[in-house]
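Note to self: keep these together.
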Amino acid sequence: MGWKRILLEGDPVTGTVTVEDITKTVPALSGATTAAGNTIVRTPASGKAVRLKDIFIWNCSAADRWVGLRFGWTGSLHFPALLASKTGFAKNIVGGNIQGAANETLYLYASGDLVYFTALAEDV
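Structure:
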């Protein structure tokens, strides 16, 4: 027998996860910071919002770096963290539906260069 998918609906912790959420292909977005400040992760198509599905952030510098994700140039930081040199984190948020408003760019904020990211995000 093959694997069977379990569909969770109305889960009070993670929200509703649909088969579409599990099977949809979204592009991998990768990049790195070149200075302190915001670096674009994804800019949505006109009238659309960015929905973040998964993020991996790694500090390749020799110094500690403050990092976080934000929607809009000055938005509140999501997952703010102080990363020691050569450390990082990953977050899988399928079903969490962390997304910005329409036309809001998703940025990685870092307090310096050499912070690398890979994200899975889509326009909705």
